[in-house]
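Page 42, continued from yesterday. The earlier attempt failed because a stray header line got pasted into the input along with the sequence. Redoing it now with the clean sequence only.
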Amino acid sequence: MTHPRLAVLDDANLIYELEKSRQDILDHLGYKHTFSVECPFGTEDRRAVNFALQRYQLARNYMPDSFVEDLDRGSTADPTASRKEYVRWQRGAVTKTPIELIKSWVDKSLAAGNVWLVMVSHGVDGIGWEPKTHSEINEYLAYMKSKENKLWIATFQDVAKYMRERMHADVRWYADGNAITVVLRQSLTDLSYDLPLTLKTSVPSGWERVAVRQGGRSQVVPVVQDQGHSYVLYQAVPNGEVVTLAALGATPSR
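This time it went through. Structure tokens are written below.
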């Protein structure tokens, strides 16, 4: 509510700051936007963050999931050295941070398939704390744009949802002639976890294109060939209707 340093507050005031601000967000923006929070001043105080995590699904200050290597902005660890499924690598660009260093963070993320770059900035053109210029920010965004075919750029909330859904997902499939049925389930009980996941399903070598249907949603996707292996990539919502894959333009298998 008042942007204080949460670590110095007693329990009553800490609860007030978190719960009152959450209620204001709920009243003005709706339930979707109460999913995540960042405690003021980027605090890493574990007591304050734990209080926040009792009221929000996620805090930018700390991600407790066992499958995540959590590297905050002050960490000097190499994110590409981690063997965990995901690395939340938070970087903070301040006034003196060279633009080439900022671009290198994108390149380092691309060097490994498990690094999630979380960029933090706190102002622009002299307004805010340690602000960057709008021209630097535009240059950084243009650099990401030039590599967008290799990047997934999304909100903090959606990336965290995707990771958790994927790690709690179970996929079963059944083949019947020129059709495949896929069942996608995930064990998270909160209904806010409704982000589509990307599935990769092997298909017979004679398939050329595939019609993918889940409930009222449908899409046609091409078959990808990789060293003699045929597969399709498509989007599906966990805990929704079954997914059906039907061959379009199939040729006899050899």
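Notes: The chain has a mean pLDDT of 92.
Reminder to self: strip header lines before submitting.
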